[in-house]
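1st attempt posting a full record on here, be nice pls
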Amino acid sequence: MNSRHLQRNAIAGLWWGANLTFSPWREDKYFSDFKDKDDFYFTQILFSNTDIYESLLGRSNTHDIRLLCTVLDVIHENKLKRDEWRNLQKRISALMVVSSFDFDSYKESKNKIESLIVT
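the predicted structure (as C-alpha cells):
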C-alpha cells in the first residue's frame, strides 16, 4: 500500500499502524526481549504523537516492522523531543543508503540507531 493512500485515508492509516506495531514478538523472535511487555507497547508509542505517526509511516523504510518498532523504542527510551527524532529519522535514511538492518539483532539495530542521536 502506498504511503500517500494511508495519509489520505485515516481509517486505513490507523489500521496499518496498529497492524505493524501490535505485539510483533508473537511472530518474530527479533522482538523476544519484549515478550513480557503490553501487546500495545509499540502501538502506544506510535500513536502517542500525531507527528511521530505521520513522520514514521510516511517513510518507506519504516514499513519494515523491525526498523519501525526499534525506532519507536529508541524514541521512547531516550525521551527524544520532536526535533531530535526528526533528525534521527533523517540520519537513519542516510545510513540505509550504505547499510542494512536486515541481519542485525534487536540490540545491534538499537545500538546503531542510538549512535545516530545528536544531543
